[in-house]
Amino acid sequence: MSHLFDWKEERNLSLLVDFYELTMGNGYLYNGVGDKIVYFDMYFRRVPDGGGFCIMAGLQQLIEYLKNLKFSEDDILYLKNKGLFNDDFINYLRDFKFSCDVWAIPEGTPVFPNEPLVIVRGPAIQAQFIETMVLLTINHQTLIATKANRIVRAADGRTVMEFGSRRAQGYDGAIFGARAAYIGGCDSTACTIAEKMFGIPAVGTMAHSWVQLFDSELEAFRAWARTYPNNCLLLVDTYNVLKSGIPNAIKVFNEELVPLGIRPKGIRIDSGDIKYLTEKSREMLDEAGFPDCKIVVSNSLDEYIIRDVILQGAKIDSFGVGERLITAKSEPVFGGVYKLVAIEENNEIKPKIKISENEEKITNPGFKQIYRLYDKKTNKAIADLITLADEIIDESKPLEIFHPIHTWKRKTLTNFKAKKLLTKILDKGQVVYDCPNVTDIKTYCKEQISTLWDEVLRFENPHKYYVDLSSKLWSTKHNLLTKHNIHFR
Amino acid sequence: MSHLFDWKEERNLSLLVDFYELTMGNGYLYNGVGDKIVYFDMYFRRVPDGGGFCIMAGLQQLIEYLKNLKFSEDDILYLKNKGLFNDDFINYLRDFKFSCDVWAIPEGTPVFPNEPLVIVRGPAIQAQFIETMVLLTINHQTLIATKANRIVRAADGRTVMEFGSRRAQGYDGAIFGARAAYIGGCDSTACTIAEKMFGIPAVGTMAHSWVQLFDSELEAFRAWARTYPNNCLLLVDTYNVLKSGIPNAIKVFNEELVPLGIRPKGIRIDSGDIKYLTEKSREMLDEAGFPDCKIVVSNSLDEYIIRDVILQGAKIDSFGVGERLITAKSEPVFGGVYKLVAIEENNEIKPKIKISENEEKITNPGFKQIYRLYDKKTNKAIADLITLADEIIDESKPLEIFHPIHTWKRKTLTNFKAKKLLTKILDKGQVVYDCPNVTDIKTYCKEQISTLWDEVLRFENPHKYYVDLSSKLWSTKHNLLTKHNIHFR
């Protein structure tokens, strides 16, 4: 498929906002702070499934939303009818022009807790308004890309196909879920529209209903082989895999394909004990002269089952992964948050902090940048350093980094390179970033993951990658905490 | 809000299909069975979270999809470019006219495992094509309506607000999730667009960022009270609930509202120990002369936490429930399936069965109806009886029902009434059903739940509601199983 189609449809999702973003917007305007320049960070606090990192995803959809953000007459009428908002606010929305600056980490990048994935700078009323959509868009796709990557790593080089549309949480769950799964490393999807929209290879052959619709399994297989001689992959578990499905498949391969000099593509098993059935099926297919016939399995798979059956020696070439990928079933919530971190006053950036009795919930104040620090010799990522936005890392000098809480834990880096993770995406509301296509994002993702140590990639209890604060940012935070400590204990 | 808006946007979701629906459709046509009349059942096998029942939801969106099903030139071009489909099939899609009959259980109805929620009768190529969208639409909303109902029952009469958009799995997850949550019993939503689209009350006040944007919490509260004197609900946990938030709220209520003769609406707590903080806050508000000031809590709530804090005596008037509702976090997959159950041959309906070594996965064959049987005296639902579609229940005679597996477990009903659950929705592709508005569905849902025994409503280990097969259906199934048993053991 080289021919790609644009996502032309224009959906009006402008009012996909939490209602408080409207009441606050109206209130900011009423209190004369609507145009005050503020900074919000979108970040997350922990990696789902106890993993070592997440995969940033969803930026393209966020950009599309921001680029098109405006209010229809319908929207305005609806808001007026609420009887809650001042005319000034209604008029502001009618003439709305998005004017924020936005920075973000490119899709496909491995990201870690407490790192701003998206930074929004702009008038309070606007930066506040987009809270829900920033979170919803990034939370969803990052969740699925992260889960997909775990599954793909478990499959250890075998093909992984995303099969979950029917169990997704809504249409976008299926469509953008397929996109995120592909970024995270899946090879293809069953979701046809995802190929049309994004060029992700769509695959699929038959369901049990195909087999049932014919008078016998054998006839159903024959009909398939005659329709798709070059794509002959048969679902063999409608009645009984080893007593009926595989023998019938072999018969049809021999009768319909071999005389034409065509090799069968494979068989699929969607139920029963995967380990036992694939071992036996492999033996039967090999003996029958089809060692090149692939074995595809599906049926409630995830990274844990995949790892287990591979360890047990199951003979599988390809996994179709459905509901547990598309909903990230083991942990279906990505807890990204969107917090005010600074305001501008008299042309100065004034850092703000949100304090909590729970230390983990305390924000990193200020307008920031993230540097990923690589060892020049191994090309492996050593640590990420969150700095204030105007800080510059001098690669020619040793760099001391330290644990943000246990500050006596220190490390001095030499022979490193520093790469900025946050890129400008919108400048005063105008898009200044070219979204790569999903295949390039997927490739980039794989490359980036290869810079992580194995210890960080481990499924369970991975090494905690260092995400440190620069001295300047650490002091900024510490000073604000000290100033506010009157409220604690 | 009485002014409602239509969901005018037309989304082209025609290719939101699993790719195998296309390869099978093409194959059916090629093998001369494309127009064979088939019956598919959509049903589920178990209730999420170990609950006693589910709430049917999503039908309106399914109808909208089926009503508008057609293929754009873009769609056709994409499919042609795949190089896999015959011209006959491409032309069939170009001239596509949906002509299936569809029956369904109305939204808001409590439903049980193995009951067909949707039945599709029509040409194989069409009935197969819509598989993904039937499943995706009903699976998603039924999952969320069911979860919401658990949460609402746990809240035991207190208000429940759906607050989950930012953590939903995609935009539709937020929007249709809010719809399903409302059907399941939530009182309102934070998702603004859900009010515009469906008339679900949208609510919300302020985030922590409001408080942070002003020089002090006190000033932030003052500004709010002046902006919204009649809607003064303050978020009190930005710094410290009991030492700062509540005292400042009381001060502002006294200074800004009392002189105007206005009562405050409430306070919201979004962190910390709910039980302790609400008890103390209640005391402080009562002492200050605001016993009518409501206490709203949010922060990772679900039915278990809500039940627990209520049991412990927490003083809460209203719950804002987010991520755990909108993703059905504890069990985020609704496992609906879509199975071929009959074909028509020589104008006769020929039941089909899908056999599995797992007894639970064996389908109920044939074209069916479901009767809900009510005790006339108590008006409580006693059992559901799945019958062949042409069976009639004579309410004037005793009716013997029996367990579908342990057939010696029998019960004879007298003085009962029988209500058909499946209603015709589309007739030869034309909609013949008027979707009620969501508020009516919500009311209907509540009424229907009141016909269930408390034993079925229990959260954990509920009584298993009887879902039996009529003698005729049971025999049909048994005969087919006997015929096929050659494959087993």
Description:
Chains A, B: Catalyzes the first step in the biosynthesis of NAD from nicotinic acid, the ATP-dependent synthesis of beta-nicotinate D-ribonucleotide from nicotinate and 5-phospho-D-ribose 1-phosphate. Chains A, B: Pfam families: NAPRTase_C, NAPRTase_N. Chains A, B: InterPro entries: Aldolase_TIM, NAPRTase_C, NAPRTase_N, Nic_PRibTrfase-Fam, Nic_PRibTrfase_pncB, Nicotinate_pribotase-like_C. The structure is a homodimer. The radius of gyration of chain A is 26 Å and the shape is globular. Chain A folds into two domains: about 20-145 and about 330-485, nicotinate phosphoribosyltransferase, CATH 3.20.140; about 150-325, Aldolase class I (TIM Barrel), CATH 3.20.20. In chain A, a hairpin with a 2-residue loop joins strand 12 (about 335-345) and strand 13. Chain A contains 17 helices and 21 strands. With about 500 residues, chain A is α/β, with parallel strands linked by helices. At the A-B interface, helix 1, helix 3, helix 6, helix 7 and helix 8 of A face helix 1, helix 3, helix 6, helix 7 and helix 8 of B.
Give a brief rundown of this model:
2 copies of one chain form a homodimer. Chain A has 489 residues and is of the alpha/beta class. The first copy, chain A, is built from 17 helices and 21 strands.
